[in-house]
Design goal:
single chain; alpha+beta; four-stranded antiparallel sheet; two-stranded parallel ribbon; globular
Length: 195
Amino acid sequence: MRRRRFVWAVLAAAVGTAILGGCTNTQAPTPTLTPTASSPSTSSISPSPSPTPSPTKTVVPDNAGDVLEPMSCTPLRSDDKPKISGERQQIAVDNGPRVGATGQALLDPDGTPVAYVVAADDIPDFISDRFCVGLAYLNNVNGPRRGGAMVLYAGDILNFDAETVTTVGDINGDVEDYPLPAPLPPQHAPEFTLQ
């Protein structure tokens, strides 16, 4: 059995080489990360828009290795709060800054992260992991004002709270007007402070 697998592996390699013919690069392509834009950081929560809103690629240091692998966690879901788009609300928990998620958390009076100020070179997957909320959930609560959470600019505000979907979040200093998720929990004005 082992010999048969070896023969098939050799044959597959030979066929692959024959098909590729003159190709000489045998390295797998380098994976790319989600684009992130950098704009001057400000100390205010409402950043001024950058003159050219074109995202740039995140530069990953050569020695980053396995540091850029998001950890996995299970989001906390609320059973006692109204659902958003038929799903239970998720409660953000700040597990601390890390490569790809170095921005500042905005906390409600109880100390729960309810929003986030994006830093240069932040990556959506790593922000999602830092706060232990699903990326789909982040896109849902940031859809109306930002169009989701996938394109980031330094100084952007990301929302974590399903009850402030209509009042928290911006993209490159602008507030968009995309459709609201349905059903949408009752909304309120944000109450938060910088961590």
